[in-house]
Structure formats: structure tokens, C-alpha cells
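Example record

The entry below shows one chain as it appears in the dataset: sequence first, then C-alpha cells.
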Amino acid sequence: MEDLCIKIPFSEEVKNLPEVRPSRGDAIFNTTDKILEWKIPTKEIHGSGNFSLRCTVRGHSTGNDDDDENDSEGGVPSSGLYDFDAPYQRGIAAKAEHAAGQIESQAGGNGAETEERSNLLKMAQNKILMPSSVMVSFSIKGWLASGLKVESINLDPRKSKGLGEGVKPYKGVKYVTVSRNGVELRC
């Protein structure tokens, strides 16, 4: 396998990925396009088969600067604790409330306890920030994903332009599987 590139699109609610830690290769988050691009060089692919990418996802601020007391950048507390009620999380509160309500109704709840509702709200807020698909690009020499094989090729030298009388085509086929724009996997 060569040229392995994994692209992970995030929702517009994501502000930044402050900590991106790939086990191999390089990962860069484009804040404009909201895409994390992880490239793994060919020499690093041919080791053990385990790859991992860990990152911290930070959502957008609502723009309420009054609520940002004792917070550092983007509403994340300076103590390093993750606060689900931080200002950047409140910007998506309406979507999360709606999602939590849907989860609650699917579970058959009719007025769950506040702690359970809080947990559902946290799950919904996290779900909004998480990606729902991944694009994987790669190339593999000597393999065909479709399984099709070429048994023979007949060339007519009279109709083939550029093929002289003394030119004999090489009798062999080299297979290559290339996924340039990615194979999309949905979560």
C-alpha cells in the first residue's frame, strides 16, 4: 500500500483541534475547510498494522464574552477540565436539546431525572461535534479491488496508430488499484 491519506470532515460547529496526536505520519487540521488530513508515508505503512489518531475537539464560542469569566481560550477552563456547560458548548445547546429529546423519546422516557437528562444532553453535544464519515485514499500495486483479470489483448497493427511493424507489445499486465479522491466510510 502506498500514498495513504485519511481525510476526516468535521461539522461547522467545530472551532479547532488543539491536540492532534497521530501514531504514525502527519496530521493537520484545516480550520477553514474543517477537515483533518492525516498522511501516512509509505515507509511507515509497512511496519505493524496498528495506526491511531487521537485529538481533542473544541466547539465554537457563542460570542457572549460576558460569560467567559475565569476561562482561557474559547471557553475552556484554564484548569484543563472539560466543561460541558462552557460558553462554546452553549452555542449548540439548541441542537443538543433537540437531539437529547429525540434520544429520550426513542428510549421511551417521559420526563427522565435531571441527571439522566444531563447525560443525554452531554452525549448529544458531543455527537454534534464528532465526524460522521471518513475519506480514505490509497494506491496498491499488483491488486485489483474489483477482482477483474485480463486474460488476453488482441492488437490489430493496421488499426493501431503508432505501432510500427517491428514493435511487439509486452505480454503482461500490471495491476494497480488507486483511490485518489477517497473511499468514503460512514460512521
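Notes for this example: The first helix runs from residue 42 to 45. The chain is about 20% helix and 25% strand.
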